[in-house]
Structures are given as structure tokens and as C-alpha cells.
Amino acid sequence: MEESMPENYKTLCEIRDRLEHHYRDMQDMEFTVEDGRLWMLQCRNAKRTIRAAVRCAVEMVKEGLITEKEAVLRIDPMQVDHLLHPSFDPNAKIKAIAKGLAASPGAAVGQIVFNADDAQAWHAKGKAVIMVRTETSPEDLAGMAAAAGILTVRGGMTSHAAVVARGMGKTCVSGCGEILIKGKTMTIKGKTYKEGDFISLDGTKGLVIEGKVPLVSPSLKGDFETVIAWAQKYKRLGVRANADTPKDAQAAVTFGAEGVGLCRTEHMFFEGNRIDAMREMILAVDLKGREKALAKLLPIQREDFIGIFKAMGPRPVTIRLLDPPLHEFVPHEAKAQAALAAKIGLTPETVATRVKSLSEENPMLGHRGVRLGISYPEIYNMQVQAIMEAAVAVQKEGLAVVPEIMIPLIGKVEELTFSKANAVKTAEDVLARNPKHRVPYHVGTMIEVPRAAITADQIAKEADFFSFGTNDLTQMGCGFSRDDAGSFLGKYVELGLYKRDPFVSIDQEGVGELVRIAVQKGRSVKPNLKLGICGEHGGDPTSVDFCHRVGLNYVSCSPFRVPVAIVAAAHAAIEEEDRMIKERRAIANSKL
Q1: What's the rounded Cα separation, in Å, for the pair 318 and 260?
Q2: How far is Cα 238 from Cα 336, in angstroms, rounded to an integer?
Q3: CA torsion sign, 450 to 452 to 453 to 454?
Q4: How many CA atoms lie within 13 A of 367 on its CB side?
Q5: Is the pLDDT of residue 151 over 80?
Q6: What is the DSSP string of 233-283?
Q7: How close are the terminal C-alpha atoms of the chain, in Å?
Q8: pLDDT for res 408
Q9: Which pTM value belongs to this model?
């Protein structure tokens, strides 16, 4: 056009500039040329990818067209995830063969393997793998870390696979019920795929794709860093990360986290050979046997905490004491039980009997969390000792930390009173042995049982802080199994029974009301009670907005969702400020 109709082209460019300055946004314009004359038909704000949106926002601020706050509001927090993970080449042709839940965003390509051991072995040979499992358990952690992506037949948005994958920044598609696994093959719609075949996963859309799809690497430099800096300037809600290892903690800092809101100590027990000591403790028949095994775990836990404290520097770290039921840590196959028996000096029959005794009909409502700490206080005592010894060790090196010790699954204040007394005694014993290094510490609890939310005023008398575990609070509040509800919640959303999956975005009318009650009751006793959220909702923009409005101090999410939460928190603060300005103007105008 510039060559064939130079005058019209010049006029079009002038009109474009005038429209973009008027609307203060990039425009999608429709025009026609008739009998040599330019006619403008219509214009609208142009659609754009998240990368283009970030670039446009930054450039418009530089040009003085919009403010920093307006620039932040033009970045959709829901789309920020796309900047943090690999994606597929948009020009690539794909063949989707199955669909599951979009459990952890991004794209991954690799060869199929069916267990954690093979995932590690193939990864060690330099091969990218997709680990396919019926469902994952803590025993699969090493394999998940080695895999490029995870695909499961069962499990919802807060299943083990989904939560761990998001924490690791791994692509995951869960709840893909179309898959039938048999040995080292899987069948989808009549076609069988064997170990070693290539597949690709789209964790953003929940797609399983045949073959290898070209990937595009993410980049967080330049304009995106600028937008995040603006968002951090204007948000009021703190953003922490869920981090279980020094590596996770360092990634969290890189993404802008202001602390660790949830360190899940149970994940530490699956690294290397330490699981054997954990299993020895679980299978011990008396206190003496448990304490012998715990003595092996103590230095390991201490070193883990030292690593996390150093990675986070002076930032706060909230450490949750052991939460899962003990059966998750023990082998359930006869061959593995026999191997464990040989290691710890028991007969295979004894191990099998003890493992069977740990099984529960409904383990998520069973012997876990604080209930373990009450039944076996020596477990929590060992963990508190490790935390405090680690804090003293880093203080001796010049790093001042304030550990936040969190007791999970409280339902009654008496449970917290019992466990807190043990924690304080253990902590004070450590400090008494190190009189020159008086480390301050806090003991708080998770609010994840509905009864705890209703009686939060009683619990606040004992707790230094609350952290809402909204995964379990949703499970118990709605009566949905977090591992099984994925099979029908999609239908609920489709029918409008829920606007979104309540494990993805907090149910504000129901579960959210429990949070509001706990906030009000807790602060009626302690006005400055620190309140946070550490469920997966902490990385959902709609839930972040709710947390801002209800008055929480911070949200905590997986490291790779920290930028999402930062932008969402800035949106919440800026939009609240805009509403208040409009309300004041309306009041002023009504008086005229």
C-alpha cells in the first residue's frame, strides 16, 4: 500500500496514531479504499498475546500514554503463566489423542516411561521422558524430578501429581481417564503406545499429543521484569512461595517471593537413602525404636533447613511439621517390603503386617497431621529440634532468621495447646544449649478443618499465626475428595453448578465464608494476628483478589506461580483504590 497508494498510506498511519493516542491502546482497524479514497470502517482495542501485551504496556508507559498502574492492569494475571514455561511452536501441527485436567502449565516432550526408577535411569542417559502413572505418590518424587512431564490416569487439580508438578515447574496432565495402563504400555481409544514412544503434553490445555511437537523456550527478561517491578510497587498483599528444598527456595527468590509460606517437611524424606530411616521409624514397635530411627533423621532434617534458611536469607520461612498419613511412606509391594525388611533387620512378614495395619479407609480424614504429633510426639519434637538447631547454626554465621513452626490439621484448640507445649519445650531446650544465640521463633497452625475456622477465636489464643490450607478446607468444607472429584467437577462447571473447579479457584460463598469467619474471630482476639494462605489457591488470580479483600497478610503458591500472584495482588490493590476514588467522587457529587 505504501508503494501503490502512498497518500492513503500516510493518512492511514496518521489516523492510526490519532486513534491509539485517543484510546491509549493498540488498535485493530478496519478500512477500505474505494475510488482512490480511504474510508475508515471501525476500530477496537486489539487482541494480543501475553508477550505482546507486556511489550505494549511498557512502551506506552515510556511514551506517556498510560501510567504504570494502568500498564499493570493491562496484564492478565491468568496469562502470565504462559511466560514462565516452555510452550509449543504456534505453527506446529498437533494430533491430540486424549484430554485430561490442565494440572500444571507448560509444554513437555519426551519418551514414555511408566515408573520413577525408569524415569531416573532414562534421564541419566540424557533422554527426555514423560512419566505415565495411574496416580503418583511421594515415592515417585525422584522420578517426577527427572521427568520432563507427568501424565496420570487419576487425580484432580490438588492431587499429589498436580501439587508437586506445579511446585517443581513441571508440565502435568492429570485425571486422563481415557488411558488404560497395562505393564509398560498404555492404550488410548484403541491405539497402544509402548515404553519409549514419544508423546507431548500441553499442561495449559490438558492435552496429550502424539509424537514430538517443537518447543519454544520462555524468557522473563526485559519488559516482563519491568512489569513485575511495577506490580510489586503497587500491591499490598505479600506473596510467598511453597518450597520444600533449597533449590525450590532459590527459584522462589528468583521469581520474586518474599518468603516461604509452606515448607512441606514430608517431601524431604524421599531424597537419597533417608527414606529407609523414615520407614524404620514408622515400622518400629516401641518408643525406643522410633527414637533410634529419628536420631538418624535429625541431622538430615537440620541440614535441609539450613539450606532453605540460607537460600531465603532474612525472609520468613514457615515450616509445616509432618502432615501425611504414615502409610504413604512405606512400600506396598511384597518385593519392596522384603528388601526393606533386610535393610532394617525385620522379617518380611513383620513388615507386611505393620504396613497393613497402617492402611485406612479414608486416610485424608484419618491418622495424619497433628494427630500423628499427639500419638507420636517424638516425631514433631525431632523436627522442631532440627528447625531450631538449623536456625542457631545460620545465626552463628551471621544470618538472622525467625522460624515459623506450623502445626497442621488442628480441629480443636486443645490439640494445638498440647503440640505447642511440646514444640516450645523442645525449642527452648535447643536455645538453652546455645545461650549466646537466642533465636526468636513463632508457633502457629493451619486452618484447614472447618471446626478450626468456626472456633478460630479459641485457637488464636494459642497461635502466633494462621495459614489457611484451602486444599483440605475445600475437601472437608465441600465434601469433595481432592483426588477423585476431578471425574465429575468438570460436569459441575459445565452445568454452572460451580463457576470454576473449587480446588482451582476458592469457593468464595462457602469455603471463602469459613475463611472470613476465621479471620474475624482470630483477629477479635489478636488484632495483629498474621494470616496467610498456603493452598494451591494462592496462585489463582481470582482467589488472590479474594485474599486481598478479606484482609490476609500474604498468599503462598508454587515458585513458578509467584509472578502470577504478584500481578494479581497488584490488580486487587489498584482496583480497590480506583473503587474508593469513584465512591468518594460519588459522595462528593451527591452533596452538590
Answers
A1: 6
A2: 44
A3: positive
A4: 13
A5: yes
A6: HH--SEEEEE-SSHHHHHHHHHTT--SEEEEEGGGGGGSTTHHHHHHHHHH
A7: 55
A8: 97
A9: 0.84
Entry field: residues in the chain: 592
What pLDDT does 247 receive?
87
**398 pLDDT more than 70:** yes
468: left (phi > 0), else alpha (psi -120 to 50), else beta? Answer: beta
pLDDT band at 486 (very low <50, low <70, confident <90, very high): confident
Phi, psi of 28 (to 5 degrees): -100, 110
DSSP 172-228: EEE--TTEEEETTEEEETTEEEETT-EEEEETTTTEEEES---EE-----THHHHHH
Confirm if 270 and 141 have CB atoms less than 8 A apart: yes
**Residue where the block lists cell 486443645:** 414
- Report the 10 Å Cβ neighbour count for 384: 28
Average pLDDT, the chain: 93
Q: Specify the DSSP class assigned to residue 148.
A: S
Q: For residue 389, which of 422, 421, 429, 419 has the smallest C-alpha distance?
A: 429
- Residue 137: pLDDT band (50, 70, 90) is confident
Q: CA-CA-CA-CA torsion for 510, 513, 514, 516, nearest 10 degrees?
A: 160
The angle that helices 287-312 and 377-396 make with each other, rounded to 10 degrees, is 30
Q: Give me the DSSP letters along 358-378.
A: H--SSGGGSS-THHHHHH-HH
Q: How confident is the model over 189-237, as pLDDT tens digits?
A: 999 999 999 999 999 899 999 999 999 877 667 899 999 999 999 999 9
What is the grid cell recorded at 248? 525450590
Nearest-angstrom CA–CA distance, 115 and 117: 6
Active site residues: 160, 534
| Residue spans of alpha helices (H) in 48-173 | 50-62, 68-73, 77-84, 116-124, 141-146, 160-168
> What percent of the chain has pLDDT above 90?
75
Q: How far is CA 107 from CA 129, 236, 256, 360, in A?
A: 13, 32, 23, 36
- Is the confidence at residue 464, as pLDDT, over 90? yes
- How many helices and strands in the chain, by DSSP H and E? 23, 23
Helices 287-312, 246-254: inter-axial angle, 10-degree rounding: 30
